[in-house]
């Protein structure tokens, strides 16, 4: 039994409670009241992406712990294991939330995405290895802040505002840096270190990258077309 599972369970419960209480904390505007669960879901996702001392500080962790750059398998700084476990709990909560409140044909892409993340991060939590690799993957969540803000502004009917336009520009910039470039670096690292990774784990990582990379490129094209090509 891994103590990390307790952190996962606690994180799941905490995000579930947050989701239930968010409508009181952030009441939905009239334009979002027809889809209240989605309003709560996006704010919960934003809370995960913007957690202090987690994803926002991931770049600092690599600066303060340079050994991470050389060993993404065994090395990890204090608290990193719990950080990854907290994220597993969030992705499980979001998976359950979408499964219960959204039709499958509307959410299958995100459910598929979450399944891959839960499996990959779950392995890291259980075996206490690849935590550094998971931290690199969490850099993606820096862009998620602006991605979720975009959805909130859309639901609040604030598309034709300076705030939305500015967020769109930052969103695309951070998307290229923290999603596409990060995934490309992770794929390269897997290829160069295939001899240091067990075959089963290497297969899971390779399949995960093969799924995530096209999904993120397609989403980038959709964002570009929606916010700048129309």
UniProtKB/TrEMBL annotation:
Membrane topology per record: Multi-pass membrane protein
Ranges of residues in domain TLC: 34-230
Keyword match DNA repair: no
Gene Ontology process terms (BP): membrane assembly; phospholipid homeostasis; plasma membrane organization; regulation of membrane lipid distribution
Organism superkingdom: Eukaryota
Keywords carried by this UniProt record: Membrane, Transmembrane, Transmembrane helix
InterPro entries per the UniProt record, alphabetical: TLC-dom, TLCD
GO cellular component terms, semicolon-separated: plasma membrane
TM helices/strands, residue ranges: 131-149, 169-191, 203-224
Subcellular location: Membrane
PROSITE patterns: TLC
PANTHER family, A to Z: CT120 PROTEIN, TLC DOMAIN-CONTAINING PROTEIN 2
Protein's name according to its UniProt entry: TLCD2 protein
Species annotation: Promerops cafer (Cape sugarbird)
């Amino acid at each position: 039994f891994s103590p990390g599972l307790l952190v996962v369970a606690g994180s799941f419960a905490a995000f579930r409670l947050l989701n239930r209480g968010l409508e009181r904390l952030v009441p939905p505007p009239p334009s979002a009241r027809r889809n209240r669960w989605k309003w709560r879901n996006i704010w919960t996702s934003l809370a995960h992406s913007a957690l202090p001392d987690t994803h926002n500080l991931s770049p600092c962790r690599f600066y303060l712990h340079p050994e991470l750059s050389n060993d993404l398998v065994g090395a990890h700084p204090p608290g990193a294991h719990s950080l990854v476990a907290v994220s597993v709990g969030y992705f499980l909560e979001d998976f359950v939330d979408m499964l219960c409140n959204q039709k499958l044909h509307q959410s299958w892409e995100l459910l598929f995405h979450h399944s891959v993340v839960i499996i990959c991060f779950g392995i890291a939590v259980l075996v206490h290895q690849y935590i550094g690799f998971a931290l690199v993957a969490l850099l993606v969540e820096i862009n998620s802040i602006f991605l979720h803000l975009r959805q909130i502004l859309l639901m609040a009917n604030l598309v034709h505002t300076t705030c939305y336009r500015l967020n769109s520009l930052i969103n695309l910039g951070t998307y290229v840096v923290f999603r596409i470039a990060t995934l490309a670096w992770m794929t390269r690292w897997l290829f160069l270190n295939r001899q240091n990774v067990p075959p089963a784990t290497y297969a899971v990582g390779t399949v995960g990258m093969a799924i995530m990379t096209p999904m993120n490129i397609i989403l980038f094209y959709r964002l570009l077309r929606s916010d700048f090509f129309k």
